[in-house]
Amino acid sequence: MRDDVSNGILKNTEHDSFDIQFDANKEVHELTEISDLSKRGYQFLKEDKIHEAVECFNKILAIDECNNYALVGMGDAIRKRGVFRDAVVFYQRCLIHHPGNNYALFGLADCYKALNQYHKAIEIWEQYLLHDGKNITVLTRVADAYRKVKDFKHSKEVYLKVLDMEANNPYAIIGLGHLHYDFKEYREALFYWEKMLQPGVTPNKVDIRVLTSIGNCHRKLKTFESGIPFFEQALERDPYNFYALFGLADCYRGLNQSACSLEYWNRILKQDPRNKVILTRAGDAYRALGDYDLAVEYYERALNIEFDIYAVLGLALVDKAKGKYAMAVESLRRLIQQDTRNYRLYLELADCLLNLGEKAQAIEVLEDFQRQDIRNTPIMERLDVLKS
User: Fold this and answer.
1) In-domain check, residue 113
2) What share of the chain is helix, strand, coil (3-state, %, to 5)?
């Protein structure tokens, strides 16, 4: 009896041992397969073979639906396709099973940034920084996100923290330039962007966007002559760069060099013939040069695309220049009904009325503007002259 029991126990033990051995072998095989698929998947990602990478990660998830490498890999692959909302799902699944996974946090934050959900991106990056507080890449992303939500104080703090860690970090320097530019602090923006021109800060050629940004600061500060060389450098690298062409045209416009500005307005129009803003600017240049027929042609081309208040104003000013004051008055009165706070319209209308000998009406027009409780120096000075 004991022998039978003993034999039974022995047989069961052998069977259990076999099952354990079988399970162990299966587990080792699956782990090896997952490891191989993971390596292949991430290699495919590096090579931008997204379809192949997705196939590898899906095979892993069929074996282990909570595998962190596969979930992050799927998120990365889908993010590379630009389908950010779907990528978010995989990163979140990973974080449910593996809280604090840095790669999932990084990918998730980048998705929120791409979706313009900057507050969510900041929240996720802040979680990342709890694990890796000195990651410069993440810190600059946080600063960028704060800049996007107009949080000047926190954005500047984080950018400066990066510069404390790495004095010539180009992303922080450029970011600080954009930050000050966004808040109309153009001299401060110049201070940072000009750092990019210093030897040792940029190992290769300075980015063309830095050149146009410096030029734009000079445009805003009305130091047009100083801005021209930067736009010219940008144009040497890219003869079709819109920002360089626009910057040069606008600088020459600011310097009242209409013939020079026309060269660049027309170069833009060769690329974009239906740009109504540029058509109107070109019309202004032709009008300043006294070529009224071409000015009218460009204004009308702009208006054939869409109504533009400055194109209508341009036509009124052509009438004024030709001595057709009554026609100009009619156009300017209609424009004022549409834009009651545009002081220039009132000045031009008052000038036309004076040319028609209607001084009292001219004064009344300027006083109409003042009744809006808007302090405007040119209006006040013109009124003082007329009343005296």
Assistant:
1) yes
2) 80, 0, 20
Looking at the fold, whether 115 and 157 belong to one and the same domain comes out as no
Q: What is the pLDDT of residue 131?
A: 85
pLDDT tens string 55-99: 999 999 999 999 999 999 999 999 999 999 999 999 999 999 999
Boundary-marking domain end, from 74, 102, 131: 131
Decide: helix, strand or coil at residue 6: helix
Task: Determine the average pLDDT of the residues in 157-174.
Answer: 95
* Pick from 314, 315, 316: nearest CA to 325: 316
Buried b (16+ CB within 10 A) or exposed e, 70-82: bbbbbbbbbbeee
Q: Is residue 53 assigned to a domain?
A: yes
**H/E stretch holding 349:** helix 343-355
Q: Examine the domain organization and report whether 384 and 367 are in the same domain.
A: yes
Kindly list the distances between the CA atom of residue 9 and the CA atoms of 4, 14, 17, 142, in Å, as whole numbers in the listed order.
Answer: 9, 9, 12, 65
92 in the same domain as 55: yes
Give the other-Cβ count within 10 Å of 360's Cβ. 10
- The string of pLDDT tens digits covering residues 106-141 is 999 999 999 999 999 999 999 999 888 899 999 999
CA 364 – CA 138 distance, rounded (Å): 59
Contacts for 127 with CB less than 8 Å, ≥ 6 apart: 100, 105
Amino acid (1-letter code) at residue 118? Y
**What is the extent of the structural domain holding 370?**
323-388
And the tokens for 85? 């909302």
